[in-house]
Structure formats: C-alpha cells, structure tokens
Give the backbone structure.
Amino acid sequence: MAFDAWIELAVVCTLGAISPGPSFAVVLRNTVVGGKKRGVMCGLGHGIGFTIYAGIAISGLSILIEADKTAFTILQYAGLFFLGFVATQMLIASRTPGHVTAHEGGGRRGFGEGFLIAFLNPKILVFLTAVFSQFISTDLSTTDQVGMALLAGFIDGGWYMFVAMMLAGTPLIEKLQQRRHHIDALIGVMLMLTAIILLVSILT
C-alpha cells in the first residue's frame, strides 16, 4: 500500500478515536475512579478490542456477520446489555452516600471495561468496514492487512492511554474526583441514553 494511503488511513483513524462517545466516557470514568494505572489499562483494553474488530473488518468476515442477521443481532443486544450494565453501575454509585475513595479497583477491571466497551460495540465494526473498504484492494498483501489492523488499534489505544496519562494527577482530575458522584450520574445517563437509542434503531 502506498505511503500516502497509510497517512490517509492514520488520519481517518485518529479522527475516529478522538471523537467523543461512550468509549471516551468509560476511559474518563476509570481514570477518575482508579487513577492513571486503571485509566491506561482501560485505554489498552479498548485498543486491543478495536484491533480485533479491525482485523475482522479487513479479513472480510464482517460481510459474513452482517449476512447472518441472527449473529449480528445477538452481538448488538450483547453490546446494549453491557452499556446498560455499566450505566446502571454508575447510576447506583452516584447515589451511594459517604466519602468516595479515589483509586478504587485496579488495572484488570479497567482493562476489562475498556475491552468490552470496544468489543461489544457493533458500530465500531460498521465504522471500520466503511473505512477499510476505501483502502482494500485485491492485490493487498497479508502484511498490509495486518499492518492496517495494528495501525488502527495502536492509534485507538494510544489516544485513550494518552488521555488517561494526561488527566491523571492534574488539578482537573482532582476536581473530577471530588465530584465523582456527579460524574458517575452524568456518564451513567449518557450511556443509558446511548443504549436506548441503539435499541430503538435495532427495533425499527
């Protein structure tokens, strides 16, 4: 693949990564609750989940998934369930009385939430399929295909890990930790609304 095509792909993936959405909210929340380590691990998990999806999109298996409506629908509902689960946890946490200690949980939990928010989001597969369709050709080598998937995952995970590292330990994150109940409530409502919107789109 030509060098300029790699640059174009990197730009598109970067714009997709920095766009605010449920993934950013989950990484932010993990950083507020668990500090730099948990936030970075959340970003790493998201990047790995994103890389797997990128590999699926490039290999053409996404066509098979979309062709099998049952499998794709199950994936969509699994994503909705996870979004709803995380949203419910945050809403419950926002109503918990008493002092909230920062740096709760650990890197493993952050990694799990980051991975699942990416892996159970069928919209990422649709996005990647649309992006890679502009760069895939019949003469594309296996090395190029693997490189494209790794590039997409590196940019995605790198961005969220960068966000976590930049926020952790700053006055901003300290203020957010002091208002964690409000952060949990805001993100919980946002994720729940996202799940409802996706559910309506599936049913209609």
